[in-house]
């Protein structure tokens, strides 16, 4: 038997929708979550594809996440759009706030979208790509759980704290990046621990704060940020902007709230949108051309733009569908029972 | 003879002011530049202290920088404050735009300050600290000259592209960082080349794009960003936000414009200000307290906050004055003749 099965993107979407609604999620939420799960699978970000359904359903069944929460929009200041997710997943809250964010960015030049009280499990690139699709520049960040030590420390304070950015291009895919400010995903360390394999230096410190190649010692210690003191500074900035500034939980607060349940982190998210048309006025076309010159200077020397691999996968998946591990497919089928 | 001489901060400021005005700089510009040079010397950022006077005067004498340019403020959209520096140094333009930036941030929640057509030589931390002094959160970035290769490349595309951030604290100094997205300053590689010393791996690639420890080969090749593909992505973001978005030169454009003259880079700068009072409303105090908890979790485990060394130097300098190399002092005296 072939260990993988082929699904069209419509089938991926339908499968995700069925699994979520069968587990009591409201139609609006299920549509929003199935959308990003399909995007993740399509771009071959496997950990953010159908695999995530297992975690979503676990979170729903635990009763922590409200699958029917109705997001509430407010506007505490002209350039701040705030959406209270009311303990639902972040994605419907994002969809609810996005049109007003874009409208305010077009009106004011820059605007912020604050999502509060949300459970967050998804990558940020679909969110900044959605902003770029509107011809705007997007920036997004969020804390997670406090697994990552500050530089020079030994105890987790920061989350894996992703930062994502998208720049709209007149033709083709936007310029997009989305990276964790931790050196590596926690799952990679867990995988090495299970396989009794050493981890590279730079991923983690042990409980005494000493750099370690022992995956078990790493899990008992703390992860490191990427890029030394610079990555550590960025991780702190994300705690401040997407935690303290928006009145939501930092990664340490969120981990304390979870109290070992292992649910998706409850916290907030900050997105910014900039309108190039307002910044550049009559110089919009030459400004966008300047960006194209930058991209050409990168690709012209054989270097790659971020997200290129993802965009290539997207093209393949739209043409040929995606291949799913049969065991995963069966696990998802079991969620429908 | 003691190789160093002691100066009070007032004396540093007066010396800088005299050197600049003696070389034809207008009083407003000289005051703004002398201010940040004094701050740099005070905080023992020696390359941004009195030493910078030599470069400033060289730029003035070359005729490239207009020492009398009157910055012009406009507001193309409610949340965008734009200052055209008209080929003067950036600092008077910044001072001119800062009050309106803060006013708009307080009014709207978030606002942007765009500085265009400026010559830039100063660190960004005094700028974001000035925003934090107003109780606002500041973020600043600027391109420079295209010395830094994208990850996987061999040719300079990015500048050293600093990113600076400041968070206001109810008591004491703000939380501040200011780092280059290059792995190291270009001057450090030049220094190693002069001393025929090898450089660490990770600083630079040779002309073929291979990692090198040979400082000469590095200068013929290109510098690297910090943090691999993540640092490279950040450097690109800064070119886009503080170059293309604001209708000003990228690092490659700026280097082409300089055409080997070695003046300070001509380009633009983007600053953002966020008002915690507008984001947090009635929850301002608990939001700021959440940030304090974060800082306590960092320092409580023996790790340091960024800029701590600078703040310690500041305290020393305000008490004891600063020590200046006698040769530098004489070089500056020579500028007064």
What does this structure look like?
The structure is a homodimer of 337-residue chains. Chain A is α+β, with helices and mostly antiparallel strands and 337 residues long. Chain A has two domains: 4-63 and 307-336, Hypothetical Oxidoreductase Yiak, Chain: A, domain 1 (Orthogonal Bundle), CATH 1.10.1530; 72-182 and 225-281, Ribosomal Protein S8, Chain: A, domain 1, CATH 3.30.1370.60. In chain A, 46% of the residues lie in helices and 18% in strands. Chain A contains 13 helices and eleven strands. In chain A, the strands form three sheets. Chain A has a seven-stranded mixed sheet with strand order 2-3-4-10-5-6-7, sandwiched between helices. In chain A, helix 1 (9-22) packs antiparallel against helix 2 (27-42), helix 1 packs parallel to helix 13 (326-336) and helix 3 (51-62) packs parallel to helix 13 (326-336). The longest helix of chain A has 19 residues, at 90-108. Chain A is globular. The relative contact order of chain A is 0.16. At the A-B interface, strand 4, strand 7, helix 8, helix 10 and helix 11 of A face strand 4, strand 7, helix 8, helix 10 and helix 11 of B.
What are the main properties of this structure?
homodimer, 337 residues, Hypothetical Oxidoreductase Yiak, Chain: A, domain 1, Ribosomal Protein S8, Chain: A, domain 1, seven-stranded mixed sheet, two-stranded antiparallel sheet, globular
